[in-house]
Automatic annotation (TrEMBL):
The chain crosses the membrane at residues 215-237, 243-262, 274-292, 298-319, 326-343, 373-394, 400-422, 452-468, 475-495, 501-518, 530-554, 566-591, 603-626, 632-653, 665-684, 690-708. Keywords: Membrane, Transmembrane, Transmembrane helix. This is DUF2339 domain-containing protein. Residues 32-86, 134-187, 717-743 are annotated as: Disordered. The lineage of its organism: Bacteria, Bacillati, Actinomycetota, Actinomycetes, Pseudonocardiales. Pfam families: DUF2339. The keyword Transmembrane helix applies.
Amino acid sequence: MSVPMEREDRIAALAAELGRLGRRLDDMGTELISLSTGGATSEGTAPPVQQPAPAPPEPGRPAYPNAAHPGPAGPDAEADAGHPGAAYPGAGYPGAGYPDARYSGAAYPGAGYPGIAYAGAAYAGAGHLREAHPDAAYPGPARPDPADAGAGRPGATYPSIAHPGQWPPGYAQPGRPAPSTYPSYPGRYPVAHPGPARGPGPLRTWLSSLSGARLLAWTGAGVTLLGVVLLLALAASRGWFSPAGRVIAGAVLGVALVGVAVRLHRRESARTGALALAGTGIATLYLVVAASTALYGFLPAVAGLLLALLVAGGGLALADRWGSQLLAGGAVGGAAVLAPVVTGGFVPLLVGLVLALQVAALPVVLRRQWPWLAAVAAAGPVLFGSLTALVSSSGADRPWTVAAVAAVLVVGLVGAVVAARVVPVGRAAGLLVAAPVPALVASGAIGGWSGAAPAAGAALLLLLLAAWTRLDRVLRIAALAAGSVALFHATAVALDGAAETAVLLGQALVLVVVAAALRSRVPLVIGGAYGVVGVLAALATQVPPVALATFPAAPFLVGGRPQTSALVAGIGVSALVLAFAVAVMVSAARVGVLTADRRTAQLWVPAGLVALYGAAGLVLTVALLVSPDRTGFVAGHAVVSVSWTIVALVLLARGISRPALRVSGLVLVAAAVAKLILFDLVALDGIARVAAFLGAGLVLLAAGTRYARLVAEAETEDGGGPAAGPAGARGPVQGPPPPGPGR
């Protein structure tokens, strides 16, 4: 029995102590309220003025508006010094609206508490302030002590005056009390209600989070990794320890760091350091595997790559479990940056090791949707693959280098396509475009037909991706652009001279035709870029403008002897230039880039000039191939002048209702006339000059006559059209009646 009694005594003592503590806190709060609403302050506010005591309420009339507060003293009450405005109920007087002295406890004054009314303690939690009696319970029911339940005592278990139904008949019944703990009463005791709860502050930026303990921890991680590299690489060059001892020491250090990180991560306050320790440990184990494979030869290449993949996968799984992209990126980035040091430079094995990091990161990227981890993991293979292609593309390492860059291409494309499901498609497109870079670098470093193979393979894979209709449109466009660049690069590496120019123009022609068939602007833009390069190459080498304007027209004629290969190449390149220009205009019109209005009329001019250049080159090279002398040269120019005029007539005829074609025709007419006056008049002689001028003049006369008739007919149709007979024949145009007298 003693044990339960002691337990009850302890509980009672604890309850009493808590009660005293609550009363002290309550007294402090009441005193603060009294200070904020009491007498004069240092700011000069005057103390409250006592009002004269009004007459007691009569039965049947509403109670005093502030009946819930201490009303003025009754006639028999005596003022208590130091309690200004306090209501002290007299014997039998209904102080504060109570009809009986039993309820006078509602206005019980506390020492030092000016004029504050207090309801019964049993209802203190209903929105009324507690009075200063030391034994009053607040909030909650009254103490069960009978001594505190007498009339006029605050601990009495009488209902609050604010509850309806407690008033005797004939008195007004106020409404229920306000729900707030400290209600505000008009003109009495203003209470400052707290404002709405503020939401959390703005999220910390990356720079602000990278400060203090985190910055210190990750700096320590970087320094530790440098120490590991020195242990593995510098110790090997200085002969410190045995290779096995270095590897074992590094492995023990890495395992210990990861173990300590796992233990620290259990505490919330130590998780910043735990992330840094774990990242350092994972990178250390990875570097130990890389050194054991590439530097010391303890592991074969395949086993080393598998073990590196296992270590990287375990570390990234830990980062996934902890939900830390910083840990994942730090481990992958730190291991990749320091890997070339322990592998002895940029070798194909280095590319395989960093590819293991990218492969291990892919599942975590898919699960956690971490775009930065995808970018960090892909940066290593692209960068080190390109550097390895520059350094190791010759000698015995060439096959391994080609295999390494091919692996980077395949893994990069697969990673970009898979990552596009969870990361922003723009970033996935960036990964896709970066994947073929090492292959292009390797092609340029190797050169020739063998060097074109990596670029051609990259172009093939990318163009297949671009043709995959289930792929996102942005990725398809990126794949098409990257594949076109790879194809151009392969062409430039494998070919040169006229063959390169012809292949570029052929590729441009194919892309432009595809654009017209698909009604897509992307192939049109890429094909236009190819065509511009091809046209510039033709102007520079195969069909130079000087050869078309002067005789003996080198390189077609050298020493008076025709160069058949140059003439054949010129014919082919000129024909491709002409076909490309015509295809560009048709395709641009089909996809909506070129229209028949004046907004795009200026865009027809450059395409038309390229077409004229191709046509002139084709005519002159054919003429020189038939007659490799000056006769063939001047005959070719005469045909060019007449053909330009004929094409101008066709454009003018088709351009009656199409301003763009009409403008192009007029420009071509001006060009033909300028050629006749500035070139043919000087360069041509004999019958060729006569034929050129007569032919061009007759064509211009016919063009002018026909064009004037077509314009008149078009204006007639625009004005309402001629009258039609019964058979629908077009009748004469009815003009306005002649003016009569007085008009």
